[in-house]
What does this fold into?
Amino acid sequence: MVLSVRDLAKKFGTFAAVDGVSFDIQEGEIFGLLGANGAGKTTIIHILLDLIAPTSGEITVFDKSMRTHRQDILQQMNYASPYVAMPYRLTIFENLMIIAGLYGVPDRKKRIDEVLELFEITNLKHKPISRLSSGQVTRVTLAKSFLNRPKLLLLDEPTASLDVDIAFRTHDILLQAQKEEGMAILYTSHNMAEVQKMCSRIAFMNHGKILATGTATEVTNAILKEERDEPALEEVFFHLARTAPPR
Amino acid sequence: MKWHRIRTVIRRHAYETRRNLNRVTDVVYWPILDIVVWGFFTIYLSSHETTGGQLVGFLMGAIILWNLFYGFQRDVVVGFLDEFWSRNLTNLFATPLTIKEYLVGLIIVDLVKISVTMIAATLLAWGVYSFNLFAYAWGILPFLLNLLLFALAIGLFSSALILRYSTKVETLAWSFGGLLQPLSCVFYPLAILPAWLAVAAKAVPTAYVFEGMRQVLQGGGVNWTYVITALALNAVYLALAAWFFSTIFQITREKGILVKME
It folds into this structure.
């Protein structure tokens, strides 16, 4: 097992951002965390990266506890989010050299060229971040996330600022990496179609809790309490938005 | 010109002043600090007989050493602020990087910067004002070490407050060191201060540094009592600053502040 989360909870004062969440991710699996804004998806990612301390619960990555093996675990993980910036005066190459250095990536320059080529931004290599479009910055953060060949990749709405064409190509790159390198991916998104395409299993979250886990069809049936043959995640989303009381 | 739009611009800046400590320090803090420091210096000048050459030496030495102290503590904080301004903390600490490793790297960079500053300032003082601080290098060195240790403690303390309260208090990078200037007796001896302020000054390692520096420049040799007292105070302040920083870093993780910093 790559990742095991048990009874994870995070309270900010009296507000329960994450409330008793449990899920597992297997090797080579793309697992989706789905839910509205404020459901707790990003908080879970931040806890998994040890940027936020959980209130309670246990996280095991590669059979090691995050409490005692932070550095070993983070060495084999990476993440990308369009909402995180990079030093904007530095070029893409300089930014990637820093991150590669922190992971101790061997032959850094060659690896940087590989990830830039993978995400089709080689031509931008020596441009400062401040001169890139938001879509280009997103591709830089995705390239960054591949630098250390992570075994577990956390992607927080990775295609949020990409146009449809580049988003589709990014999906293909991620699916290829999953197949070729056995990379496990935790994928959060608001985009139901994207999650359905990318993820073999999903957990649907609302108000910090997981309401259902399984394939898209299983989750649809569990939440709508019906027996359908096809997934209807958008319907699930609207159902929850309109029936669950606001926090 | 419409008054309601002008009024709105005024309101916009009033909101900013209320929310941004930087604006308050610009308005009140620096003018008061200048009056205090130069007021005491004027008292010193009018009440002591010093030869012109000696005064130039005291002032040059004071300016060079104070800039080292001020620059080093500022650079520790600004190094940290650079990560806030570029919203890069998440990128850094999502890697195996530890906060201790980050701080050691930052301190090494700042030591290089401060060495360049010191060499440039000393050469300039030598070339233009015939004041050769290199001639006193061995006597000044123990005080210089104390100066940097205290600057590090102040830098860590200010960085911790910025970690906790974000860039709202970024002015600490420039203002907190300045607050210590009157107590550090940079341009005048400790004896000039009123008794109540002298008590506070004796708790500040930089006061011993500048007293010691003047003694060295007068040819009185190194006052080891000053050196050891400053070292002892620095040990306490550094331990407190390190504890404070580490506690605040833990609080930022618990409160989720680290991922929301701008």
In short: DSSP finds nine helices and ten strands in chain A. The first strand of chain A starts at residue 3 and ends at 12. The two ends of chain A are 34 Å apart (CA to CA).
